[in-house]
Write a structure and sequence with these properties.
alpha/beta; Rossmann fold; four-stranded parallel β-sheet; about 10% strand
Length: about 200
């Protein structure tokens, strides 16, 4: 974490030296479930505390460090926007049947880290609402990344739109949350999953 914080601090110092304000900030750094890390993509009893620590550092703590460093620049914007990228696995329990007969597994660290993002949004929305800060998270469903064919097949069978998501599906919501059209929206965890959670 010391190394990560040092690098984020250095990046923020560069930003602070170059800009008088920040209007839009999008945080999408993540240690995802497909990461090839020892003690990560494996059965629960084999998941390591080291991978949990790293996941919390990258997925959760990094967003806090960025915002702490840059908060004064956000305050100088008329309607600053912060968007944190999250996941439906921070909202509901995992469907482990999706991983049967595949080389994939979703570690508990990922769900813990992502659910933390969702409460960060509500905390900061309450704290900085008087500064017109609009902070929201986007809870993504499965994004296609050439995953195991069995996983993909089982996943899309559960999605009303009958497919996994892709980058283009996220653009519209990012545009809305970045614009003045969303000046009255803050503290929200917005689900973007093709309808998967509508059946739960």
């Amino acid at each position: 974490m010391i190394f990560l914080k040092k690098n984020i601090d250095e990046s923020c110092n560069i930003i602070i030296s170059k800009y008088e304000k920040i209007d839009i900030f999008i945080h999408c750094a993540a240690l995802v479930t497909a990461t090839n890390l020892k003690g990560w993509n494996c059965k629960f009893e084999e998941q390591s505390i080291e991978s949990l620590d790293l996941c919390l550092d990258i997925n959760t703590k990094s967003s806090i460090i960025f915002i702490q460093n840059l908060i004064n620049l956000f305050k100088k914007s008329e309607f600053p926007k912060i968007i944190l990228i999250s996941s439906i696995y921070g909202y509901l329990g995992n469907d482990f049947s999706l991983y049967e007969d595949t080389n994939m597994f979703s570690p508990i660290a990922y769900s813990i880290s992502i659910s933390s993002i969702n409460i960060i949004v509500k905390y900061l929305a309450s704290l900085y609402g008087s500064n017109n800060l609009c902070i929201n998270s986007i809870l993504l469903g499965g994004i296609f990344r050439n995953q195991n064919e069995k996983f993909v097949k089982k996943y899309i069978e559960k999605v009303p739109l009958n497919r996994m998501g892709n980058e283009n599906d996220i653009k519209g919501l990012i545009s809305y949350l970045s614009s003045n059209l969303s000046n009255y929206m803050t503290g929200q965890n917005i689900i973007l999953d093709g309808g998967l959670t509508s059946k739960i």
